[in-house]
Amino acid sequence: MLARIACMFLTVGVMFSANSNHIQGEIMSKKNNPAADMLTIPALPEVLLTPDGEVKEDFWSKAAVIEPQLLYRQNGLTSKAKTVVRLCSDPNNLYIGIVCEEPDAVVVDENDPMPWKSDSVEIFIAGNRHPAWYRQIVVGASGKKFSQMIHESQWQSKTCRSKNFWSAELVIPLDKLGKIASGDLRMNILRTRRCVKEIITWQPLKARALEVETFGKVALPGAIDVLRYGAWTFQIKSRSAGLAYESSVPVDGCFYYRKQGSKKWLQTAGNASTEPLLRSCYLTQLEPDTIYEYYVPGMKKIAGFRTLSEQNGDFSAVLIPDLHCRALYLENLLKRADVQKSDLLFLLGDQLAASLAREYHYDGYLKTIFEYWNKPFYAVFGNHEGRGEAADSFYDIFAGGKKAAFDAFSHKGVFFVILDTDRDFDMSEEYKKLQIGFLKKVTATDEFKRAEFRVLLLHVPISFFWRRWGNENYAIFSALPPETRQMFDLALSGHIHQYTRCLAGDKTITSEEPTIHGMKAERQLPFPEFTAPELALIQLKKFGKTLQVNIFDQHGKLIEDYIVKPKR
What's the DSSP call for residue 80? Predict the structure, then answer.
């Protein structure tokens, strides 16, 4: 999708000073090379702009100004149509004012719900540290808009047009851009003129829109915050919970927390992770089934979580496999009333397409969870989490830097065991032994033995061998004594992007996918295993002495309805 959009040169509102009524500002010299010079976006006091598209407010005179004029792939030729883009910020937003002079004709397609068939301007904003993780924002003369990695509902725009120009004003929240530690960004601006089939670019491009290395260097002081991301929770249990955040500079940060209703805040120091910008702590001596509030300096609001319950009872949990950074899809799920009533949220691995930077975790799903979910949340390590130069970032975010992505806990009579998954490479023997030792230890506890149900959660299914995955998890699980394996009641997994069912003792796999249906179940498990398709919603409901599994595909179709009864 991203490659297709880039090839189409989706264009976003660029500024023109076509009309003398528009505010004039100090224009960056055309003789300078913008890629070599740093353009500083002024940080102003609170602007409070309600965009009307006219770019006439007084504060625009204080903005940084860019005049894109190079024609795409035209050997340095420039356009006769003037484009002026103004940029400034306040503590909350980035403001972009665009005026596009049009000596020929402004082209507008009112019937197209997207901006592509109209004159348009496209803005690319990328981080200097990790430029591959960019934002793409498009506005058309028609008023239609589009964006990537930030939803259209999360930023404002308004356009207006006349015979010889069109203009636009954009308001983009800084926290939707992903804050960069240094405050430095890379940016490019493209304008499409439909009447003459012309593409204008601020920076010279050789072959495609996403040549991030050629983007202009932009300083955004308004984006500099000590707190960059967080604080988020991890490994919530009945009497303990982890908290973590990332700062823009190394700090000796503290966490503040209290039981809901208490007036006294407790303070604990953050521990340094393997990364100097990450801080984490592990709260202990908490009370079961209790709401706690927490914050760190820089958070805009107090956050909270509920500890798990040690008493048997009814509850529901939701599980989502193979999200692959679809943050908007996750947001829509989390807003659902039935999902909001659930106690627990699990992501069953492959939350990412690849782990090229920690920002992929933040922007791909974690910020969405932080905004729309305030209950226990758990992430399973999938094979895609192990891809890329930042593959260890999962441990930094969810394990306080410890190289361990497995966990176990119980809630209202259900004991959950999370295993680390098969990777795209062989798991080390040392790490396998570590997981086996952990698994033997937790399954020997009274908590495990007393549980009404025991559920195994993992990314890769273990009932059958899928391509080259599925052996390592089974090797870890099969290290348990047969009588312990027999005590498990259910396994849930993802990974293969298809629905499968393998009940206790089944010799073949049931699936809607013809290439999988009828495959041999290499491991005849003493409990059912269900594999959910990509973006499925699994609802796990405990009521009375039963555990119900409902699986819905991404279109809402019910594809599995199964009742698990206790073995004793």
Answer: S
Quote the CA–CA distance of 547 and 568 in Å, as a whole number.
14
Phi-psi region of 48 (alpha: psi -120 to 50; beta: other; left: phi over 0): left
pLDDT band at 414; cut points 50, 70, 90: very high
- Domain spans of the chain? 2-223, 225-307, 308-564
- The 10s digit of each residue's pLDDT in 125-174 is 887 655 666 788 999 999 999 987 777 888 999 999 998 999 999 999 88
Asked whether the beta carbons of 312 and 412 are under 8 A apart, the reply is yes
Per-residue confidence (pLDDT) for residue 467, from 0 to 100: 62
Which residues, 6 or more positions from 61, have their beta carbon under 8 angstroms from its beta carbon? 23, 24, 25
Query: CATH for 308-564?
Result: 3.60.21.10
List the strands of the sheet with 546-552, edge to edge.
Answer: 377-379, 344-347, 315-320, 537-543, 546-552, 558-564
- pTM (two decimals): 0.66
Domain 2-223: assigned CATH number: 2.60.40.1190
Select the CATH number that applies to the domain covering 225-307 from these four: 3.10.50.40, 3.40.50.920, 2.60.40.10, 1.25.40.20.
2.60.40.10
Return the number of other C-beta atoms located less than 10 Å from residue 297's C-beta: 13
3-state DSSP assignment of residue 565: coil
- Reported as a single tens digit per residue, the pLDDT across 488-508 is 999 999 999 999 999 998 999
